[in-house]
Design a protein that fits this description.
Elements lengths: L4 H6 L4 H7 L25 H8 L14 H14 L3 E5 L2 H10 L7 E5 L4 H10 L6 E5 L4 H9 L4 E5 L11 H11 L2 E5 L4 H4 L9 E5 L1 H5 L7 E5 L1 H15 L5 H11 L2 H20 L4 E5 L9 H7 L6 E6 L3 H10 L4 E2 L9 E3 L11 H6 L6 E5 L5 H14 L1
Cofactor: pyridoxal 5'-phosphate
Protein name: O-succinylhomoserine sulfhydrylase
Organism: Hyphomonas atlantica
Length: 400
């Protein structure tokens, strides 16, 4: 059995090392690659042992909806990389974030969220929470006065993304965290775009961090997954019962794939970030472009926030073409190397039209409230040679 997460952390291993060795549990065979345990259930030495395990009086696995050795390795590794006390994995990013924002709430509670969110997250808050008697309100994520005003009215939970999907808006996590603590509200941060390599929300005061492990962590277009990271008390009291009884369980196979992806996470994110920074500069100078957003470019409206919170600009770019949907579609259809795809954080460069794909469930007014119109493209930059990417994007922009 490998060292427990706390013991690994005491060794002072850096995140890149934790991503390779953190949470490792070897069987008696001494395998180097993590073992994949494809089983739905587990046997017991006796009826008494089964009773103790189900009652939580004895450590051990009981059912793969509750956990498995492969998922446990992933949970320990993610907690070590993030600097969290504990982690739970789920079947998808939305399985993780829906758990993170719904499990703590009850009828009569109030939620404050940033206007700029992934379409499905915004849909849950705007359309589902009110059905359960939960009051919801959206604010401009960069407007601290709005955060202060709405949080001070009383709320139980706050949700933000920074950088936000799809236009890479910035939210001052530390400032919002202070407001939440004063009000007794839980701050949940979706850190998918930044990754734990470039930004640590828990260090900035967040209570809960969520990920789609599909993005960046697997990062090679293979499997779905999600993760929730927070303190142990919150996990055991609020999230564990929800996960066990509602059942958004992670597949051991998917967990194993993400485990192997984590070994190269830093290498991939670092190179993808270098590629993205170069492409953002190239795009910004093209006459077909109306605006470009990249977190570490000084012309980003929330540059100061991103520069303070993120160690680098990340893998994502958003840009607006002069015109509207027709020009955006013409650009996308002219791409030869880059794929049209609504996924992100992949080794392959992917581009999509958020207004008609990832955020299509939102009305035009809702899209406009986050600055989104039909001219915008969201691009996730991969590991291709940047010269080839520049050539493909320049040719496609020239066609517009």
């Amino acid at each position: 059995m490998a060292d427990a997460p706390g013991e690994n952390a005491k060794k002072g291993w850096k995140p890149a090392t934790q991503a390779v060795r953190g949470g490792l549990m070897r069987s008696e065979h001494g395998e180097i690659s993590e073992a994949l345990y494809l089983t739905s259930g587990y046997s017991y030495d006796s009826a008494e042992q089964a009773m103790r395990r189900m009652a939580g009086e004895e450590d051990g696995f009981v059912y793969s909806r509750y956990g498995s050795p492969t998922c446990e390795m992933l949970q320990q590794r993610l907690a070590l990389i993030e600097g969290a006390e504990t982690c739970r994995v789920a079947a998808s990013g939305m399985g993780a974030i829906s758990t993170a924002i719904l499990a703590p709430l009850k009828a009569g509670d109030r939620v404050v969220a940033a206007t700029a969110l992934f379409g499905s997250c915004r849909w849950i808050i705007a359309n589902q929470m009110p059905k359960f008697g939960i009051e919801t309100v959206f604010v401009d994520g960069a407007d601290l006065e709005a955060w202060e005003r709405e949080i001070a009215k009383g709320c139980q939970l706050v949700l933000i993304e920074s950088p936000a999907n799809p236009l890479l808006d910035g939210v001052d996590i530390e400032a919002v965290a202070k407001l939440c603590k004063a009000a007794g509200a839980t701050l949940v941060v979706d850190n998918v775009f930044a990754t734990p390599i470039l930004q640590k929300p828990l260090e900035l005061g967040a209570d809960v961090v969520v990920y789609s492990t599909t993005k960046h962590m697997d990062g090679q277009g293979r499997v779905m997954g999600g993760a929730i990271l927070c303190d142990s008390a919150r996990m055991e009291e609020i999230y564990d019962p929800w996960l066990r009884h509602l059942g958004p369980a992670a597949s051991p196979f998917n967990a194993w794939v993400v485990l192997k992806g984590l070994e190269t996470l830093k290498l991939r994110v670092d190179q993808q970030t270098r590629n993205a920074a170069r492409l953002a500069d190239v795009i910004a100078d093209h006459p077909a472009i109306a605006a470009v957003r990249y977190p570490h470019r000084e012309d980003h409206p929330h540059y100061e926030i991103h520069k303070r919170q993120m160690s680098a600009g990340g893998t994502m770019i958003a840009f607006s073409l002069k015109g509207s949907q027709a020009e955006a579609f013409k650009f996308l259809n002219a791409l030869e190397l880059v794929d049209i795809c609504n996924n992100l954080g992949d080794t392959k460069t992917l581009a999509c039209h958020p207004s008609s794909t990832t955020h299509r469930a939102l009305s035009d007014d809702e899209q406009a409230s986050m600055g989104l119109d039909r001219s915008w493209i969201r691009m996730s930059v991969g590991l291709e040679d940047s010269d080839d990417l520049v050539m493909d994007l320049t040719r496609a922009l020239n066609s517009v």
